[in-house]
Amino acid sequence: MLVLAFDTATDVATSALLHDGAVLGERVGSARALLADVDALLTGAGRAATDLEAIVVGTGPGSFTSTRIGLAVARGLDVALDVPGAGVSTLAALASSQPGAYPVIDARRGEVFVPGPRAIAPDDLELEPGTLCVGSGAIRYRETLERMGAVVPFEDDLHVPHARLHAALAHEYGAVQAIDPIYVRVPDAEAALA
């Protein structure tokens, strides 16, 4: 099965093209360049968009706008190609990068997104000594997490929610239009109206 996977929830957007689980190509860029990255992946593999058999999209949590970009692209591709899709949490993808990894995504406003999912101040996390923390929040709050006894690797690649990880976690495919984002917090626009 030819699968296109991508995640745009964090500052780093990732995309991957896989055939029967084998990675044909990967790209790391920004949410704004996602369609160009998808085109480059397909071209590089000698494939066309019409060859795609499924889509996997990262559902966050992360940036509201970036997460929406990923979902909008997935829905647009679904309208054009009529392929099934699966949504995979960005936290779950990060956690799958290393055995025992604890995902920590920068949530801005002095908070991080962690499993639950929930937004919490880094100082309020309760981590076992030696916990391996990965993600943009782990990098940003390295000093705080290390003070708690956590381990934050210096390999930048471990902190990126690679789309190939999303594809590996996707097991059930269905209607792309039914894939919902994971926001954790109320969007700023809704909060302002309330």
Task: Give a structural overview.
The chain has 194 residues and is an alpha/beta fold. The chain folds into 2 domains: 2-89 and 161-193, Nucleotidyltransferase, domain 5 (2-Layer Sandwich), CATH 3.30.420.40; 91-157, no CATH class. It is built from 7 helices and 10 strands. Strand 2 (13-19) and strand 3 (22-29) form a beta hairpin.
- The gross shape turns out to be globular
Q: Please write the string of helix (H) and strand (E) elements.
A: EEEHEHEHEEEEEHHHH
- Which spans of ≥5 residues are poorly predicted at pLDDT below 50? none
CATH-derived topology of the largest domain? Nucleotidyltransferase, domain 5
Number of domains: 2
Radius of gyration: 17 Å
Distance between the amino and carboxyl termini: 45 Å
Features:
about 190 residues, 2 domains, three-stranded antiparallel β-sheet, 7 helices, 10 strands, globular
List the helices and strands and how they pair.
Elements: E1 2-7, E2 13-19, E3 22-29, H1 34-44, E4 54-58, H2 64-81, E5 85-88, H3 90-95, E6 101-103, E7 105-108, E8 111-114, E9 118-120, E10 132-134, H4 136-140, H5 142-147, H6 163-169, H7 188-193
Parallel strand pairs: 1-4, 4-5, 6-10
Antiparallel strand pairs: 1-2, 2-3, 7-8, 8-9
